[in-house]
Prior knowledge:
mainly alpha
Amino acid sequence: MLRTISRFNRRLAALLATTAFLAGAAQAAETVRLAVTDIEGLEQIQREFGAFRDLLAAKTGLDIEFLPVPNRTAAVEAMRSEKVDFVLTGPAEYVVFRTRTNAVPVIGFLPSRLFRRHRRAG
């Protein structure tokens, strides 16, 4: 499981890094601010996404800062007021982001256990 998470983090970091450069976020600032909608508190975000942040920072040369948000509404407001550059969120929350901020999805992924189930069924 740890190997899968590590491989997933590397792939996600590479995709986000590429997209950040293409979208111009990296050119606008040397620090990218990242929020996660389903995790409250800076300590918990650092614990769960610290390795991802470190890998993304190493691949891009950017400083990655976490912005803790207590809920989806706070994340939407942070994006609207340009206090956050990227928000990791689920598909249902994305609908809210899209209607309130004109957010554009950077990357989407399907957990590997679901992918395997869909692949066998299809």
